[in-house]
Amino acid sequence: MYAEVILPVPLPTVFSYRIPEGMELQPGMRVQVPLGRKTVYKGIVMRILTEEPAVKGIRDIEALLDPNPLVGEQQMEFWKWLADYYMCTLGEVYRTAMPRGLKESYSPKYETLVRLAELYQDEDALNEVMDTLARAPKQLIILQRLVELIIEGGGLDSGIRKKSLAAGMEFSPSAYLGLLRKKILSEYSERTVRMSGDGGKILPPKLLTKPQQNALDKVKELFKEKPVVLLKGVTSSGKTEIYIRLIIDMLEKNKQVLYLLPEIALTTQIIERLKVVFGDNVGIYHSKYSDAERVETFLRSRENPLGGEYGVVLGARSAIFLPFRDLGLIILDEEHEQTYKQWDPAPRYHARDAAIVLAEKFSANVLLGSATPSFESYHNARAGKFGLVELKERFGGMNQPEISLSNLREAYRKKKMVSHFTPELYELMQKTLGEDRQVILFQNRRGFSPYIECFDCSWIPNCINCDVSLVYHKLENSLVCHYCGHSEHVPSACPECNESHMVTRGFGTEKLEEEVELLFPDWKISRMDMDTTRSRRKYEKIIRDFESGNTQVLIGTQIVTKGLDFDNVGLVGVLNADNLLNFPDFRSYERSFQLISQVAGRSGRKDQQGRVIVQTSQPEHPVMQQIVKGDYHAAYLNQMEDRQGFNYPPYYRLLRITLKHKDKSLLDKAASDLAAKLRKELKSSGSALTTIKLPEILGPQSPLVGRVQQMHLMTILIKLPRTPEMGNYKDLIGREIEKIRSDKQYGKLFIIPDVDPY
User: Fold this and answer.
1) I need a surface site. Which of 490, 559, 649, 754 has the fewest CB within 10 A?
2) What are the residues whose beta carbons fall under 8 Å from the beta carbon of 574, sequence distance 6 or more?
3) Which contiguous run of DSSP H or E holds residue 181?
């Protein structure tokens, strides 16, 4: 017998090995296998072969690492689809799918428990020993406390956690050791989980309003006909309560639910709402948790060695790789967010599109939720591919926030700016804080300043590895590249002219925080961006402080736009909407509408209408006017007309090829060579397929940042028509890429295909 094994290497093949006699192997199990002369890998069995493969030098599997399959048939099929669709290898999928703890080493967690020694599990013997401890009061107190706890937990033969015994009392370690030495108590170890709950009170779900109930009923009805439904509900319409009802239905059918969120920060709030209803039946899976914690959630999504797998898993995009036993529903909240797209490394998947395919493998349903859906999803819903349900009212009849545009150009011209605030925003901040309500400020740039400049000669410090200026971070007094991470100290003098007059240009969240603290010294200010949320605990503290009112002003980047709910926010300020509008990308208008509408939705709760001030130099811009009116439909129709005319999604699919090389001239030659071959082959292939629509190739051209980590970059963008021939086109593109890769004249050339770049 033989096995095909997937190894975590970027090679376009699986590897065949002989199964040693007596080894009982199944697909989905991990094995240890040799590769090359000295290397040993942990791989995963893809399939069992009865006939010897036509491969020379087949070697034996060295060891079986699992008693049961870690990955099921559905996940294996899903991996194959990912590798095929996103033009990567199964090894790259495996490397992303498995938590590092399972690719390297993982140790189960054990904790110390304590119980009465067997002799004293008899009531008479216990009373007798208590009498003898009258002269050892500290030991007696510990023994009495233990007896109270074990009786609550079951009986005299049960045990409790040592931590529980020590909590809530004056615990004397020496007295405890004395009880162990006298063999009145005994300790033992038991396997436990790292992410066990706190045993909080379980409450029934909240009653739904009539609009929520109608939406829920319609979603259920549509699921009978369509596997995917889009729930378009305005901010604060109560989509989460609808999700909870659907989860309850799935759990009653013994099905599992995957609840995806675009931002790790959101799990802090959502997990509390889910735990109130589902208790410890909820697992969490994202990168801020330790390797061991992720391994435990991975294992418990399939089967729990301690009894019972998770019914619900809440996670970021990587949670689609969990090996579910029987998935019934995937909820993708804030489905429009671009953070659902994996950029690096491969597979460069989009969690929304991948989730739909994963659900298909389980015959499960998918619910996409958003107040501002991606135009692709809304297009699919209007075309009848997805079901569509709309929630048009805020929960409890709350009013939508009042959105106003504040003209930056005029404020600068009339010299009325207060720091980075127009008079309208500054005065409304004073009023809102004076009324004991909170303020959120959105600035889509972290750091203190985008760059520093010599006032005398205009020299700007650039990254030594990338073609981009360094960002000034005042707190660390450093210049940092946001592409490769390179950092250096701020120069005391300009290296070009030797003058010491360095000035900052522009502003980021760090500088904004400093200036708000100067303008409003009596209020607590907090900043939420990538620099301040390196760990899960920091995320949670910032959110909880703002929720509890300990912080009055929250300054943030895009993190603050992603579905966070706060009860007392009276004002949201968008510092510079033009940065979003003017970004050179065909989705920039769509993203501007989504981001500003989403951050605006954080304002106003309960019986108080919120205010939103958007600072812009283009108040007359159609997108700005659509944001003020909340006219999603008009924004969608305008963009669809342009996209259809210029062959962009959802009418065409995009495939971007990025080439990297340290030698700029070799890179240019390789990119031109590949583009020419693709034009020739795709044209002849399209003619042979007698299709009307042919692929369109743009480039090669240098991207906005043409050098990153000392590698020069060139890109080729291919627009693929949505026709049955699309798969053939991708195969042809893949073959041409391999030809260029194997051409020795180009040396260490990297070619990275990205299907559906976002």
Assistant:
1) 490
2) 442, 596, 599, 600, 612, 613, 614, 615
3) helix 173-181
Total domains in the chain come to 5
**Cα distance between residue 386 and residue 381, in whole Å:** 4
Residue 620 has pLDDT above 80, yes or no: yes
Residue holding tokens 């597979």?
347
- Helix ranges (H only) for 73-136 are 73-85, 90-97, 100-103, 123-132
Q: Which of 80-89, 177-186, 481-490 tops mean pLDDT?
A: 80-89
Q: Do both 301 and 336 map to the same domain? A: yes
Tokens standing for residue 495 = 């290296």
**Are residues 628 and 661 both part of a single domain?**
no
449-458 pLDDT, tens per residue?
A: 678 989 899 8
Residues facing residue 377 across a β-bridge? none
Distance, in Å, from the CA atom of 21 to the CA atom of 24, rounded to the nearest integer, reads 8
Tokens of 37: 């002369």
pTM of the shown model: 0.85
Q: Would the pLDDT of 287 be above 90? A: no
Helix 210-223 / helix 239-252 crossing angle, nearest 10 deg: 50
Better-predicted residue by pLDDT, 397 or 197: 397
Q: How far apart are CA 318 and CA 299, in angstroms?
A: 15
Q: Are the C-beta atoms of 460 and 451 separated by less than 8 Å?
A: yes
CB 35 within 8 A of CB 16: no
Rounded to the nearest integer, the mean pLDDT of the chain is 89
Q: Structure tokens of 131?
A: 């009498």
Beta-sheet pairing, 327-333 with 256-260: parallel
Q: Which residue has the tokens 């500088």?
A: 511
- Smallest CA-to-CA distance from 315 within 361, 357, 372, 256 is with 256
Tokens standing for residue 209: 């309003």
Same domain? 639 vs 656: no
560 part of a folded domain: yes
Tokens found for residue 159? 């045990």
The residue behind tokens 């300043």 is: 449
CA distance 749 to 662: 8
Residue 60's beta-bridge partner residues?
A: 18
* pLDDT digits 0-9 by tens, 704-747: 899 999 999 999 999 999 888 788 899 999 999 999 999 999 98
Q: What is the CATH number of the domain that holds 43?
A: 3.40.1440.60
Any idea what the CATH number is for the domain that residue 549 is in?
A: 3.40.50.300
Structural domain boundaries enclosing 155: 118-183
536, part of any domain: yes
Can you say whether residue 757 is alpha, beta or left, with left for phi > 0 and alpha for psi between -120 and 50 degrees? beta
Q: How far apart are CA 132 and CA 115, in angstroms?
A: 19
CA 574, CA 585: separation in Å to the nearest integer? 21
User: Which of the two residues, 292 and 311, has the higher pLDDT score?
Assistant: 311
Q: How confident is the model at residue 237 (pLDDT cuts 50, 70, 90)?
A: confident
Question: What percent of the residues of the chain are helix, what percent strand, and what percent coil, each to the nearest 5?
Answer: 40, 25, 40
Residue whose structure tokens are 């944001």: 627
Query: Helix, strand or coil for residue 712?
Result: strand
Cα gap 323→258, rounded to integer Å: 11
Total length of the chain: 758
Rounded to whole angstroms, how far apart are CA atoms 712 and 211?
A: 54
pLDDT single digits (tens) 31-44: 999 998 888 999 99
Q: Which pLDDT does position 28 carry in this prediction?
A: 96
Beta strands in 336-432 (DSSP E): 365-370, 387-391, 402-407
